[in-house]
Amino acid sequence: MSSIETEVVTVDPEAADAGVIERAADLIRAGDLVAFPTETVYGLGANALLPEAVAAIFEAKGRPSFNPLIVHVADVDEAKKIVAVWPPEAEILARAFWPGPLSIVLPRRSVVPDAVTGGRSTVAVRVPANPVALALLRASGVPVAAPSANRSEQLSPTTASHVLAGLSGLIPFILDGGPTAAGIESTVIAITGAEVRLLRPGPISRDEIGVLIGQTVHLPDGKPQDVHSEFASPGQMLRHYAPRAKLSISHHPEAEVEKLLSFGERVGRLSYAKHANADLHGLTVITMPHEPNNYAAALYARLHELDSLGVTRIVVDAPPTDERWLAIWDRLTRAST
Ligand code: TXA
Ligand code: MG
Predict the structure, then answer these.
(1) Which of 34, 40, 188, 189 to mutate to test the pocket of ligand 1 (most atoms within 8 A of CB)?
(2) Which of 69, 188, 221, 222 lies in disulfide reach of 103, CB 3.0 to 4.6 Å?
(3) Residue 209 shares a structural domain with residue 252
């Protein structure tokens, strides 16, 4: 792929410049790629109705084509144009959580090309809760397929400079709306069979969803209980969300850090415990928030930061194991394999 000029344009999320949004929307309609902020992570968007535009996403990311994309729309009416059925559970959840970090997998309509879904009969759809994203979706007037705006298997971007670091020279346009709020990718659920299934844990929990629809949200293997089992969303089998440095989750971080330093590694530690600031040579300590949403909001940015400092190893203090931390365990586990 030949290198192209990547333009980064800053937009104020509170008062997005209509001219800038219109330019980005023109690019989307014409089949070009635009990276834009959502409330979770930055997305790499393309017109979901144009197979060649969608193919360009896979090329820029180096992403395997069997891994399907989430389609972003401006509202429920637009969602209904790409799904074949709109079950009562979808209506309840869309009313409660959209715009917001919940992607719903439903049977697709034939307007959605195979390129988006990897040939599946289903499509994932969501309305993002970021004013820049919503302005772009409204202005472009088309559904926008968008994975996270990173090279495949790299950390998801939570700032425009993260996007630029990974995709500079590969995409024409980045809308910079500042850092994203939630910091980890949306919750993905499937409403395609007899039961509702969680395909990827995220900012909206299984409990919140289950309470609203009055039924248990099952894990992909059908088990209602074991929150640490494998997830079956197609993209979830990949090594994912990984920093460059080798990452380990540790129950004995002090000892592990000392061992790694003694081997000459440059170590970054995401510390959960409150502890005296270790000023050991070769060690960078970052203290993480104790509340899971705040932890999630900080996680990728801190990992990007450690990568840019050039650490060779990252030690993450094992966080709590209750279900509120499920999405964080999911991302950390993937980053460590
Ligand atoms: O927060 C997010 O969801 C971000 C922002 C940009 O919206 N997007 C994102 O996209 O994380 P991506 O492509 O990195 O992850 C999409 C996930 C993958 O795990 C994929 O396998 C799953 O959604 N997915 C998409 N369509 C699916 C389908 N039809 N059936 C099952 N899983 C699907
Ligand atoms: Mg991704």
Answers:
(1) 188
(2) 188
(3) no
